Amino acid sequence: MNIILLGPPGAGKGTQARRLVEERGMVQLSTGDMLRDARTSGTEMGRVVAEVMDKGHLVTDEIVIGLIREKLLSGASSTGYIFDGFPRTLPQADALANLMEEVGQSVDHVIEMQIDDAVLVARVTGRSTCANCGEVYHDKTRPIPGNGKCVNCGGTTFKRRADDNEDSLKTRLLAYYKQTSPLIGYYYAKGALETVDGLAEIDDVAAQINAILT
Ligand code: AP5
Hints:
A hairpin with a 5-residue loop joins β5 (127-130) and β6 (136-138). The longest helix has 15 residues, at 166-180. The chain is α/β, with parallel strands linked by helices. 47% of the residues lie in helices and 15% in strands. The strands form two sheets. Strands 2-3-1-4-8 form a five-stranded parallel sheet. It is globular and about 45 Å long. The mean pLDDT is 95. Bound molecules: BIS(adenosine)-5'-pentaphosphate. BIS(adenosine)-5'-pentaphosphate binds at residues 7, 9-15, 31-32, 35, 52-53, 56-59, 64, 85-86, 88, 92, 123-124, 126-127, 136-138, 141-142, 163, 172, 200-202, 205.
């Protein structure tokens, strides 16, 4: 089973994707994570990517489609893919449909995480992640344990993202409404769209997603 998690920055896509990896052994394909790896690679492409991401703009379709293409062609997942943060534009959605056909697979569910924009600033400015395994925390709603150790791997170093500030979030939200939200209509018309309440507590959102997948 292959699924797409669709929603604005801070909707909870990464949090839910990690749960699906743990609970169902699915493979998370996050273009945001891939691009964050690329930006530390020391290459010219990494430098360009860093500049674009920090401002909150979208990286070119060519780069992200190339990253996804490489992953999909490097071997099929028997447990299914979770596309987290991809596709984000109509050309990316078409490219994904073609790539899936090429590898003999399909997208089974597109899950839109519906959220109130008013909560997004608090969500992204309170976020931190384990530097070792990427587990996602939030200063208020999912704090780092009192012993300072990651619940997943025991790591003790946590980091914040350069683009998790109010200014960058405004640009990211604009990019979402201008370039990504048309995908809601695109997948609705294809009969693939399902929705969950992204404002619910993390466990409740996970239960809603599981109900769709079973
Ligand atoms: P990316 O890394 O994909 O970021 P994003 O889409 O902006 O989404 P986020 O990771 O910010 O949020 P999320 O929905 O995963 O929320 P999370 O679970 O962490 O992209 C970053 C940048 O890379 C883009 O701006 C762009 O430049 C580039 N890029 C990436 N993909 C691209 C593409 N395809 N094309 C072009 N450019 C691309 O949760 C957020 C916080 O809220 C956490 O602290 C969490 O603990 C908390 N939380 C989560 N769920 C709940 C809940 N239910 N209740 C309370 N708190 C919650």
